[in-house]
Specification:
By secondary structure, the protein is of the alpha/beta class. It has helices at about 5-45, 55-60, 95-105, 120-130, 140-150, 190-195, and strands at about 85, 90, 110-115, 130-135, 160, 175-180, 195-205, 210-220, 225-230. The chain is built from 6 helices and 9 strands; from the N terminus they run ααββαβαβαββαβββ. The strands form 2 sheets. The protein has a 7-stranded mixed beta sheet with strand order 5-4-3-6-7-8-9. It starts with a helix and ends in a 15-residue tail after the last strand. The structure holds S-adenosyl-L-homocysteine.
């Protein structure tokens, strides 16, 4: 090989040896900064409030919450608060996601229904823990976008459909657990019918734009066992649940 060509070749190899490690360092710092943010979030906002469920904590350490919020909220993605998403809806506060997931008492073989896909974040957390997640969203654009994001992230066990979750998802029922992530003034009867015996239903029960009770119900042979877990503030469940005299 011609000497100057040889030198040029060596120069580019030398440049590559310097630049590649710098580039990889920058990109790993970026992903690490979110990893650290997640670790901080799990420690400060979840563990410190008494949630120690291993599977829930592992899921929340893993799911990239910053991808479920709009670009304007990326830096706030791991903060201790709910955040606005499109269509005037919200992605729940991480603690509330952890709490709902914990009180649903999930195991890895479970099939779970979520009503209110929104950003898809809660569905992703569920998808890390259980075998199959079915999630229904009443706003078409949100259903489409969250479904695309979940596909892109490789969640093959999460199925999203556009529709009113009041009637549940008959073809996929019965479910081991059901999470409703929008506030309703009553418990949707069709969902109780799609819950397995000993299954759990977790939902914010109460009026619009007012503090609601986060309740956990267990379906037993002797009826429903109910407990109030926390006081919360969710966006309203819309659609059929608003019929029959409830406001
Ligand atoms: N779980 C979501 C939070 C969603 S906010 C997340 O992790 O981001 C509540 C969502 O419930 C909104 O997107 C709203 O459009 C949806 N919703 C309200 N009523 C509904 C209904 N009847 N059926 C299905 N989705 C509903």
């Amino acid at each position: 090989m011609d000497r100057s060509l040889h030198n040029l070749f060596r120069f580019f190899i030398f440049l590559g040896l310097i630049i590649l490690p710098i580039l990889s360092c920058i990109s790993s710092t970026n992903s690490d900064s979110y990893k650290e943010s997640r670790a901080r979030m799990v420690k400060n906002d979840i563990e410190n409030r008494g949630i120690h469920d291993h599977a829930v904590k592992e899921a929340m350490l893993k799911v990239p919450r910053h991808l479920f919020v709009g670009p304007e909220n990326i830096e706030a993605a791991y903060s201790d608060s709910a955040l606005p998403i499109k269509e005037n809806q919200t992605i729940s506060q991480p603690y509330v996601v952890a709490l709902m997931t914990t009180v649903a008492e999930l195991s890895s073989t479970d099939k779970v229904l979520e009503v209110g896909t929104g950003s898809g974040y809660q569905a992703a957390v569920l998808g890390e823990i259980v075998r199959e997640v079915y999630s229904i969203e009443i706003i078409e654009s949100l259903a489409r976008e969250s479904s695309e994001l979940l596909n892109k992230l490789g969640y093959k066990n999460i199925h999203v459909k556009h529709g009113d979750g009041y009637q549940g998802w008959k073809e996929a029922a019965p479910f081991d657990a059901i999470l409703i992530t929008a506030a309703a003034p009553k418990i949707p009867e069709p969902l109780l019918n799609q819950l397995k015996m000993e299954g759990r239903l977790v939902m914010p029960l109460g009026k619009n734009h007012a503090p609601q009770e986060l309740i956990a119900l267990t379906k037993t042979e002797n009826g429903l066992k109910k407990r109030v877990v926390e006081i919360v503030a969710f966006v309203p469940m819309t659609g059929e649940v608003r019929n029959s005299g409830f406001k």
